[in-house]
Design brief:
- Helix content is about 45%, strand content about 20%.
- By secondary structure, the protein is an alpha+beta fold.
- It has one domain (about 5-90).
- Helix 2 packs across helix 3 (about 70-85).
- The protein is elongated and about 35 Å long.
- The chain starts with a helix and ends with a strand.
- Residues about 1-10 have low confidence and may be disordered.
């Protein structure tokens, strides 16, 4: 993929701070399933994208609290996949 294409893909992502992204993903997970309401938080780490136009962040950890782990893992996966297409971490 050409550098211009990669920039165009990245340009479609909304820049966001890591703290704001962690809060947004956690809120999305909590709102997606009643069994995930007890989720405490998501920890995000900035990384070098694995491919041109790839996401520049990954989930480093999850603070489940009293949320149902198995169910929330699936919801987290879906929410993260969507958020990785939408956001890029600034800091």
């Amino acid at each position: 993929m050409s550098p211009i294409k990669a920039e165009q893909l990245e340009g479609k992502r909304t820049p966001i701070t890591r703290a704001a992204l962690e809060l947004a993903v956690a809120n999305s997970v909590r709102g997606s399933d009643p069994q995930c309401e007890g989720l405490i938080g998501i920890v995000v780490e900035r990384v070098v994208p694995g491919s041109p136009g790839g996401a520049n962040w990954i989930v480093k950890g999850v603070k489940y609290g009293n949320a149902q782990r198995d169910r929330c893992s699936t919801v987290i996966s879906n929410c993260v996949e969507e958020a990785q297409r939408e956001f890029m971490v600034l800091d």
